[in-house]
Amino acid sequence: MASLKLILKTQSEDKAGNSPLYIRVIQNRKTKFIFTGIKLNRNQWDQDRQKVRKNYPNSTRMNAVLAQKIADASIMALEIEKKTKNVTAYEIKKALKGENGTKFFPYKDKVFKQQCSKWSEDTLYNYIQWIEKFSNFVQNENLLINEIDVPLIKDYVHYMESVLKNSGVTVKSCLTPLSMIFNSAIDEQLVDKNSYPFDKIKIKMESATRRSLNMDEFERLKNYSHSHGKKGQLFQNMFVFAVSAAGFRYRDCVCLRWSEINLTEGIIERKINKSGRVHRVKIGPTAISILMKYYDVSGEKDSLVFPVISTEIFDRSSAEEKRKLICNSNVLCNIHLRQIGKNLGFPFNLHFHLSRHTFATHALNNGMRIEYVSKLMDHTKISTTQIYAKVMNEELDKAVDQYII
Predict the structure, then answer these.
(1) Which one of 27, 155, 356, 383 is separated from 250 by 20 to 30 angstroms, measured CA to CA?
(2) Is the dihedral angle over the CA atoms 9, 15, 18, 21 positive or is it negative?
(3) In DSSP terms, which residues pair with 281 in a beta bridge?
(4) What is the pLDDT of residue 256?
(5) SS3 state at 316
(6) Given this model, what pLDDT does residue 73 score?
(7) Pick from 202, 219, 205: which is nearest to 157 by CA?
(8) 3-state secondary structure of 395
(9) SS3 188
């Protein structure tokens, strides 16, 4: 028969000094905990007597509530054991928590509210879009967390691959917030950790490709003279600047302010939009020469460096409006770069993110240690930077096959 007991988890004490009170269920030497929804200070709880002490407000009423919870749980556990042979502690816990369990989408809102301050605006936006995609697939606003199992995720992956024609990278990204929410539910003991489905899903991943400009292509781009107007010239300069500034992302270029640059020492120090970390990087003479082209344009020290978006408009915009301004300007930038690439005869579509790949490839080719490249590019993991080294090795292998007898 299952054993039920109230346990105050003092190891989970919050900042106010209160700890959660759980019902501990032991069945066949397996233990599960069910949160009662009550938090107590450790000096308000008598573990031996299984009661709150008199120093707790309305202690008599609270003890009656707790006694009723244990009584109800004991009756339910007994009924489950009568109906089911070899019942597990997990199954008892599920029944005690109620057949409906925890609904996924309302719980998602709770997790997002708790975690969103740790994410960049782009990350939050992407997570919202990916959850919306999942919602459109399941068409069930009452979906329970414990209903998210291997068959459901496999069907969702198949839907993304075959119907939406999403790449492996996109499919994997779309599963990221689902996995995060499920892990949060495991931490709160809303679902059993053994039911975690995402490590059982295989996704077809395309071989990683990182196209970059070789030195000849980069020099041709630097020296390119065209009639695309000021915008075209601006985006061309920004691309060259990004290569010389250790692979600055588009968002960080377009949001760069003069107050974040020390031109005397050639140092940029700013909070990176994607990671939220303060990043310090020394820029090369090419980057400085481009900055000087726009130096006189700046009216104030805190204005945006590159005149893609009006500083006044940008500063008075909401977070969502800023995201749209940046995204729209990025689209325009890539339209201009694609045309420049065609004019230069590049056998690929030129877009801004190639500046990042170009920096990484050139730095590694010139002997910079991969740890330094990773740090300069603000990569969270060095394995991300190693993709560039792998691509370089593959190109070297092809060169050997082609030219060595």
Answers:
(1) 383
(2) negative
(3) 268
(4) 93
(5) coil
(6) 79
(7) 202
(8) helix
(9) coil
Q: Over the stretch 95-150, which tens digit does the pLDDT of each residue have?
A: 665 544 688 999 999 999 998 888 877 788 899 999 999 999 988 888 888 788 88
Spatial contact of 121 and 322, defined as CB atoms under 8 Å apart: yes
- What pLDDT is recorded for position 328? 92
Say how far apart CA 344 and CA 363 lie, in whole Å: 24
Hey, what are 76's tokens?
């339910």
For domain 215-403, the CATH class is mainly alpha
Longest dimension (CA), the chain: 91
How far apart, in whole angstroms, are the C-alpha atoms of residue 82 and residue 32? 20
308 three-state secondary structure: coil
pLDDT in tens, 263-282: 888 899 988 777 777 888 88
- DSSP string computed for 58-97: THHHHHHHHHHHHHHHHHHHHHHHHHSTT--HHHHHHHHT
CATH architecture under which domain 104-200 falls: Orthogonal Bundle (1.10)
Return the amino acid letter for 12.
S
R_g of the chain computed on alpha carbons = 29
Residue 234 has a CB neighbour count (10 Å cut-off) of: 18
Evaluate whether 208 touches 392 at the Cβ level (below 8 Å). Answer: no
Query: What is the tally of helices (H) and strands (E) in the chain?
Result: 15, 8
Q: What is the rounded distance in angstroms from the CA atom of residue 283 to the CA atom of residue 363?
A: 13
Q: Is the pTM of this model over 0.85?
A: no
Nearest residue to 244 (alpha-carbon basis) of 260, 271, 221 = 221
pLDDT along the chain (405 residues), means of 10: 86 87 84 83 93 90 88 77 63 58 88 86 88 92 85 90 89 94 88 85 71 89 80 93 89 92 89 78 90 73 90 91 91 93 91 89 81 76 64 48 49
Helix or strand (DSSP H, E) at 128: helix 121-138
Whole-number Å distance between alpha carbons of 50 and 64: 11
User: Any residues with CB less than 8 A from the CB of 184 and at least 6 apart, and which?
Assistant: 111
In the numeric block, the tokens 């230069």 are attached to 344
Tell me how long the chain is.
405
Query: How do the domains of the chain map onto residue ranges?
Result: 3-96, 104-200, 215-403
- Of 199, 250, 243, whose CA–CA distance to 222 is shortest? 243
